[in-house]
């Protein structure tokens, strides 16, 4: 497969989309091909989707060109580094490791025409954010955190901190969400006193936003 990625518009005030396209190699292996797996990795997520081909390919090319497919439903965040990988199922040589195509892309910042109309990019001052954090211990080993998101934060770093030592017990990063409330769960053993820190990423402060 030949892998390409570009940004496309999804309309005003909507996150641009990652338009992922791939060609199928015009050789005999295409006749056994049943699916292609595409994976997207960013600093806060790793997701994969599988494109199943509904019928066996009867020809190696279509209208004289390699078969071309697209996936354009994954939103793109500003100033984010993405790694894309793709591999075919089954591999050309059964029993061998899956050969994969890999591609890196860093999306532009708020100065880009596709990004600048995002609400995230239109606020140049600190955002008044009220996360309304709740913390609940479930069955003595699962810590559940709920908080209110803000549409202008592109991601949230969530920390569980030991109140006595001020050391991080656990941490995770979650991407932008259009849900008003999100839930994060940690599993383990915990000290008697701890607290939660949530680090948002607003356009005005990026990695230095108030926790």
Automatic annotation (TrEMBL):
Domain spans labelled IL17RA/B N-terminal: 12-121
Localisation: Cell membrane
Pfam families documented for this protein: IL17R_fnIII_D1
Key words, A-Z: Cell membrane, Membrane, Receptor, Signal
GO cellular component, one term: plasma membrane
Membrane topology designation: Single-pass type I membrane protein
GO terms of molecular function: interleukin-17 receptor activity
Highest taxon of the lineage: Eukaryota
Main location group: membrane
Protein name, per record: Interleukin-17 receptor B
